[in-house]
Design a protein that fits this description.
The chain is of the alpha+beta class. The protein has helices at about 20-25, 70-80, 125-135, and strands at about 5, 25-40, 45-50, 55-65, 85-95, 105-110, 120. A hairpin with a 4-residue loop joins strand 2 and strand 3 (about 45-50).
């Protein structure tokens, strides 16, 4: 098992929302990372698909968790794991400096529905995409997934 979590969307520390605040308060930010695969625009949030056969990457952040069960009890419902919108899987994430590879295994919430009709976020960077689209503010949460206080 892994004590690391890779996040690429509203859980990143650039966002100021209850779930990002929860993660920052209960896990330690380690570094930036890259997941081999693709990132999609799923209306008000991103969805990543792991694909080890591509050179494309999803950009995100790696956190170290001390109490994974506690963190996952809060994040799994937010990420729609019970509804099978996302699955939580362990994937290799590259945390190496530019031009080098250093892989660690991280838990990642991966999108679990077909992507054929979704827009691909070509550069794999949700923060840049979000700013370019100017549709979300940093404190915005997908409204149907967050149901109350932590």
């Amino acid at each position: 098992m892994s004590k690391h979590l890779f996040v690429y969307g509203s859980l990143r520390n650039e966002f100021d929302n209850p779930m990002a605040t929860f993660l920052n308060g209960n896990a330690e930010y380690i570094c930036e990372g890259k997941l081999q695969g693709f990132l999609y625009d799923v209306e008000t949030y991103p969805g990543a698909i792991h694909d080890f056969t591509t050179d494309a990457a999803v950009l995100g952040q790696v956190f170290k968790m001390e109490d994974e069960a506690f963190i996952f009890n809060v994040l799994d419902p937010y990420e729609g794991v019970e509804d099978e919108l996302f699955t939580r899987q362990i994937c290799p994430v590259d945390i190496g400096e530019e031009g080098t590879k250093e892989m660690i295994n991280c838990w990642v919430y991966l999108f679990n529905l077909p992507t054929i009709f979704l827009k691909k976020i070509e550069n794999g960077n949700y923060i840049e995409y979000d700013k370019k689209m100017k549709r979300l503010s940093p404190d915005r949460l997908p409204p149907y997934r967050y149901t109350g206080d932590i």
